Amino acid sequence: FPVTIRRFNRFIEISRSSILSGGVSQIRISKDMDVQSGTILSYPFPIEDIASTGKQSMLIAVAGQYARIMHIKSSGKIIATDSISFPNRRDTMHFILANDSMAFVRYGDDILSLNLGPNEITTQTIASQVLAVESHASGFHCIARRAGGLIIRSFNERGQLIKETPFSPMGSMYRIQSTEHSILVLSTATGESTNGFLLDIKTGKQEMLFFPGSLTMAVYRDWE
């Protein structure tokens, strides 16, 4: 922190205090990145993630002791908030996808769909025990535990489940990389080797892969 992103012809700077108790956050929305002006919003809680809905509004994810989602206009006016649907636990929260009427957020090991109404947010859990997630142009894939094994679950941009593909556990940490035609699951257990599971989306053909090097499981955030 601070982090600056560009949305709907505005610069949005997010900063968080490391001194004040509770992690007070501040958002500045302006037309000019170099000028310290525009709308300044302060919140008495740490902001974890932010996403544009594409309608001159954005979603703010707040985690920590009290998790919540805030839907606000680019002017700073609050449209709606939702904190009732989130369990009271200290988990991280990150957006997967967002559009004019829906968004998807990962909260701990759950994935929740958010229906964005005119003055409310309706939240529903659509996946649990999630180990990894990856978004793409028309939806997202996730890896989840099920009945002692693992499963790849593919959703479209409306949160509808398109396909499920079970596979055997390969390690303790997972990452998904996909293209229009295939899904690659990478996993590491010892840090000295990497296992791979390649799924052909069209035919369902599966292939196991092995790499002698370790897999870096860093989380990359694309703010643009």
Poorly predicted parts: 218-224
Number of helical segments? 0
Distance between the termini: 16 Å
Number of strands: 20
Largest sheet, order of strands side by side?
1-2-3-4
Order of helices and strands: EEEEEEEEEEEEEEEEEEEE
- Provide the structure class: mainly beta
Helix content: under 10%
Shape: elongated
Strand content: over 45%
Evaluate the radius of gyration. 19 Å
Could you describe the largest sheet, including whether it forms a barrel?
4 strands, antiparallel
Q: What is the arithmetic mean of pLDDT?
A: 81
Commentary on this structure:
The chain has strands spanning 3-7, 10-16, 25-30, 39-43, 47-52, 57-62, 68-73, 78-82, 93-98, 102-107, 110-116, 121-127, 130-136, 139-146, 149-156, 161-167, 173-178, 182-188, 194-200, 206-211. It is an all-beta fold and 224 residues long. The strands form five sheets. Strands 1-2-3-4 form a four-stranded antiparallel β-sheet, with no helix packed on it. The chain has a four-stranded antiparallel β-sheet with strand order 5-6-7-8, with no helix packed on it. A four-stranded antiparallel β-sheet has the order 9-10-11-12, with no helix packed on it.
